[in-house]
Amino acid sequence: MDFFEITAKHIHSLNLSEKDLYKYIIRNMEEVRGSTIRELAAKCYVSPATIIRFLRKIGFSGYSEFIAILKYTDTDMKESHNPFVVPQEDYRIEYLKNIYESVRVLDNDKVDKIIQLLKEKPRLIVMARGLNKSVAHYFEYVFSGFGFEVIFPEDHYFRQMLLNGIRNTDLVFFLTYGGEDKELIREIELLNIKSKATVVSITSANNNPVQNMSHINLYVFADCIQVGGIDMTSRISMIAIIELLAYKYMEEIAENKETSKHISNISLNEELGEALLI
């Protein structure tokens, strides 16, 4: 039996963190084959004990058996293997759960901080690569509609030029599901060196470099899906978070207008009252 045959019947019982471990293994099988348990634990930001518990849950007696089976698993099978971590009939439920969890765990304090920054009408910059570019275009469309200056540098050279002119007042959004894009990591490093601009990131929930280098991080859940080496992971949870930020901003602006109108009416009534007394 190979890795996929052993683990297939256990996948449905994994929680979100365990699914992330599973996805890491199948996406980095060659690298994992040559790793010790401590090296694998470090790469996944967990303890060796967590790795052992996880392996037992997916059908292995221990790390030695896991590595032995992995060495006899044909890596070409990754391409033909079902890209869904759960059976397709269950994926619709998992799909909705991921969106629900992403919204449920949204940190209100972080959202409030972002809204306060948005109220100052900063220039908004969106950094994204790959499939995340589609989300960045949506972000650009939504916030441009609110009157913001939104800049989305789509290629490497545009991003480099923009970093040379970054402003301390800029609000920079990094959209990267895995949070391990080396090019974007270097750009955050440069940004933090060159300016005091605020970095907001939207990434997966697992501990990752982009998350750790951001001033504010919002995380989402999704099942990683690759077809023929192409990332097809859903970005709908990212879009949901962006929309919630937009709706919260709309709500705040509307409340501020109502408050201003109310204060103006009070002032006008007071002036009229004073005029009548005179």
TrEMBL record:
The keyword DNA-binding applies. CDD domains: SIS_RpiR. This is MurR/RpiR family transcriptional regulator. Residues 114-255 form the SIS domain. Pfam families: HTH_6, SIS. Keywords: DNA-binding, Transcription, Transcription regulation. Residues 1-77 form the HTH rpiR-type domain.
